[in-house]
Design goal:
Chain lengths: 187, 252
């Protein structure tokens, strides 16, 4: 009989422990957890343009790779996007000694594809076709305006955390991935 | 329910033939170029196939004819879903990755892609690359998409409308990946690059880890690997016996 009381008591304790009738556990944890931004997380950051002269699509001398972005290879040439700014053209026929040969200035550029001697990229939200026969003097040969929406001036092209847009820094021409600390914006 | 984010990379296992097609143009002076288009990484929103270019933005798939390469013609657009991130073409199929699903489109009529199916249980936060009977998918946690799982997942996609998860391999920070012969190269973020033997495609065996750089994406060429790394690009020579040696780093 004693044993039965003991088991009943044990069950009661267990039951109380699990149902937490006095709300002890509630006091320990926040009942309405405030969504704290993580200390460090992969996310997006806006790329700004401040100089209207950058709006022109043109070949320029090779320049330093700042962030680097998406890559594309055709023949012995590597094209690397500089998010929001343009495309680095790099000869890689000698893998020991790659040579940057040009930078194609394209505001808002994020993507690249090539057929024959025509390079396709996005000039913000326009699809542009560039003749790259001579990479140090590319020509814009076609433009299809405002069909897709690759660049949103308010939100990044994906979900998750992002660095909030600060319009005082210029026009948003693209987004780049970035490791963020305590980001305040998310979508 | 926590959101997982998947980096879906589906790579054809009929690799030998596929790589020849894809890389003939990309290997430059080493082979005669037969392809008119180049090769992108697995993070792309532009892809070319069957004389067309396909573009995805956040919600829509756009089709352009490249019959006249200098003057792309918009053929149409299709509403795919939300949070579209990547597109990958393989043979006569398009794989579109979103944060909630992987969508598969048939290119039987390249000007008018038609939806074959989707795998909604797969959440893809980044690239989609394509495959025949096996799909290699990477799932990355602690990203802008949330989630905590970090893994390489092996899907049977023989029946393209019903991908079956066959294997999960834990990783640290998987991003893009590429395949070459019976080797699978998976970018493992800050920890480097993992090389797997996929002689048995369902059971990738880790045979090598390349540390020293943060890897995001790779393009596999004949005997060269072009890698998108933190701050730029690195070139690696692929030698026999799985030897991989960096030949150059382009970060400034």
């Amino acid at each position: 009989m004693k044993r039965q009381y003991f088991i009943a008591g044990l069950l009661a304790v267990l039951a109380l422990a699990s149902c937490d009738p006095f709300g002890y556990n509630k006091k320990k944890t926040n009942p309405q957890p405030v969504k704290q931004p993580p200390a460090e997380v992969d996310g997006w950051a806006p790329v700004y343009n401040t100089d209207p002269a950058n709006a022109e699509i043109k070949s320029m001398p090779p320049r330093n790779i700042d962030k680097g972005g998406k890559i594309y290879v055709k023949g012995d040439t590597l094209y690397e996007v500089e998010a929001g700014k343009g495309i680095h053209v790099i000869l890689i026929n000698q893998p020991q000694n790659p040579q940057k040969i040009a930078f194609i200035n394209v505001l808002g550029a994020q993507e690249v594809a090539i057929k024959n001697n025509v390079l396709y990229t996005n000039n913000i939200n326009d699809l542009v076709a560039l003749d790259i026969t001579n990479t140090s003097d590319v020509k814009t040969i076609d433009r299809i305006s405002n069909v897709f929406h690759l660049v949103d001036v308010n939100y990044p092209p994906g979900t998750g955390y992002f660095e909030c847009v600060d319009k005082s820094k210029g026009t948003v021409v693209g987004w780049e991935t970035k490791t963020l600390n305590y980001p305040k914006c998310s979508r | 329910m926590k959101k997982l984010n998947f980096l879906i990379i589906i790579i054809m296992l009929a690799v030998a033939s596929c790589e020849k097609d894809n890389t003939s143009a990309a290997s430059g002076d080493k082979t005669t170029s037969t392809s008119s288009t180049g090769q992108g990484g697995s993070l792309a929103r532009f892809t070319t196939a069957l004389d067309h270019m396909y573009v995805v933005d956040n919600s829509t798939l756009y089709t352009y004819s490249l019959a006249d390469a200098a003057h792309p013609q918009l053929k149409g657009n299709i509403n795919v879903g939300f949070n579209i991130e990547t597109i990958y073409s393989y043979k006569d199929k398009l794989f579109v990755g979103s944060s909630a699903a992987m969508y598969v489109y048939s290119l039987a009529d390249p000007a008018h892609p038609s939806k074959l199916g989707q795998a909604s249980h797969v959440r893809s936060c980044d690239p989609v690359v394509a495959n025949d009977s096996i799909a290699y998918v990477t799932v990355r946690g602690n990203t802008r998409c949330g989630g905590t799982t970090n893994a390489l997942m092996v899907y049977d996609v023989k029946y393209i409308t019903q991908p079956l998860l066959r294997k999960t391999v834990n990783m640290e920070s998987p991003w893009g990946l590429g395949i070459k012969g019976n080797r699978l190269y998976v970018c493992n973020g800050y920890t480097g690059l993992n090389v797997y033997d996929i002689t048995d495609p369902i059971n990738p065996k880790l045979i090598k880890q390349l540390a020293g750089n943060t890897f995001y994406d790779v393009i596999m060429l004949d005997d060269l690997m072009v890698a998108m790394i933190e701050g730029g690009t690195a070139l690696f020579e692929l030698k026999p016996n799985d030897e991989i040696s960096m030949t150059a780093k382009i970060t400034n």
